[in-house]
Amino acid sequence: MARPYRSRINRQPSQFRIKFIPSITVILGSMITALPLITDYPILPPIGLLVLLSWRLIRPGYWPVWAGFPLGMVDDLFSGQPFGSAAFLWSLVFLALETLDRRGVGRDYWQDWLIASLSIIFVLICGMLIIDFQSNLLRLEILVPQILLSILLYPFVTRLIGTIDNWRVSI
Amino acid sequence: MAPPRNRRPGFSKRAQYSIFASYLLGILGAVVGLLLLLISIFDPQGFAVLRTIGAEATAPVSKTLAEVGGATGNAGDNISAYFNAASKNAAMERELRSNRIEILEARALKQENERLKRLLDLDKEVPDAIGMARLISSTSSSSRRMATLGLGTTDGILIGQPVRAPEGLVGRVLEAGPTTARILLVSDSQNVTPVKRASDELPAFATGRADGTVDVRPINLGTNPFKGGDLLITSGSGGLYAPGIPVAVVIRKTDTGAIARILANAAKVSHVIVQPMFQAETVAAIKQEEIDRDDAEAEGGE
Fold first, then answer.
1. Inter-chain contact B141–A92, Cβ cutoff 8 Å?
2. Which of A46, B30, B71, B298 is deepest in the core (most CB within 10 A)?
C-alpha cells in the first residue's frame, strides 16, 4: 500500500471531523424524510432525534445546552411539522438531559436507553398535540407503532453512532 | 457511562459563568422555539419559503430514488402472485365474464351520457390536467400528512390546485416551489374536504384522521344516515375540487357521523394528476361566455 508518510508521534485527529461530524449526522438523519417513503400513517422513526440523543448520551458534555435549538430548526425544515416545533421540543429535551447530568451520577446503558425512550415518547406525543390539541388528544394511539419502532431502533442507531464516534476521534 | 467531568468548575469564575450562560442560552432557545411555533400556528404559510428551500435541496435525491423505487417496489407483489396462481386464475376468469357484461352496459351509459352532455353543452366544464408526476416523498415521521410532488411553479402548479389519482382524490397543493410542491393529503387532520354521498347527494364534510381514514360529518347535524359501503365523492362546493371525484368509502358509523377509508391511498398510487382549480375554471368559462355574448350582440347591432 502506497500510503503517504505520516508522523508516528504527536498526531492530531482531524479537527473538521471532531467539530462537525456530529452535526452532519444529525442533519442527515433529519433529511431521511427525503427518501421516497410515502406512508398514510406516521410510522418512520424520527431519525434525526435518535441520532441526536445517541450523541448526547454517548458523549455528555459535547453539545452545549442550546444545541437542540439550531438542530431542531433544521429538522423542522424537513419534517413537515409546524416550524419551530422540533426547535422547541429538542431544546426542552436538552435542558432536561443537562439537569440530569448535573446530578453527576454514573449511568449504565439500560438507563441511557430508558432516558432516550422517554425523550422520544415526549417529543412524538408533544409533536402530535402541537398540531391539533383537542382532536389529537383522543387519537394518540396512532403513534404507538412509531414510538415502538423508534425505541427498538435506538440501540442500533447508538451502535452506528458509536462506530462513527470512534472514527471521528481516531488519528 | 462514567459521570461527566467538568460539571463542577471549582472556584474559576469564568468556568462558572460559561456554564450559567450556556444554560441561559438553552432556555432562550426553548423560548424562541416556542415563539416560532406560535408564529407558525397562527400563520401557517409564514415559513413556507424555508420549507420549500429544504424540499428543493433534497428533491434530486428524492426524484432519483423514487424512480428506482417505482421499479423495485412491486417485486414483493410479483413474487407473491405465483402462489395460489391456479385458484386465482379461476376466480379471475369468473370475474372477467361478469365484468365483460358490465363493461358493455357501461359503454352504453357512456354514450348516452355524452349525448346528454352535448345537449347541455357541459363539455367545457370538465377540467383537464396541468401535469402528471410521481409523489417523491412524504412526511412519514410526522403526524402531519403531506407529500412532496416532483412538479413546481415552472410546470404551472399553483397553490390550491387539487391533486388526484385514477382511484380518487389525493389532496391539494399547499406550497409550491420551482420544481417541487407540497401536497396536503386528504388524510391530514387540517384538511377538510366538502363531500356528498354518491347515491343521494347528501352533503357532508370529510376531515382527515392522519391514519388513512377520514371523519365524515353530515352538514345537517342530528341526522346520521351513513351506513357501511357508502361512496363519498367531492361535492364541488367551496370551488376547489371539481364535483364527482371519488374520495372515500364509509367503513363504520360513529356517534356524530362516520369513518371512511380514503380510496386513493397515497402510499399506493404511482402517479398523480394536478388539476386546475374548479372555480377558476368556471369563472373563466363564464367570462368567455360573456365575451362571446357581447360579440354576438355587437354583430347583431350592426
1. no
2. A46
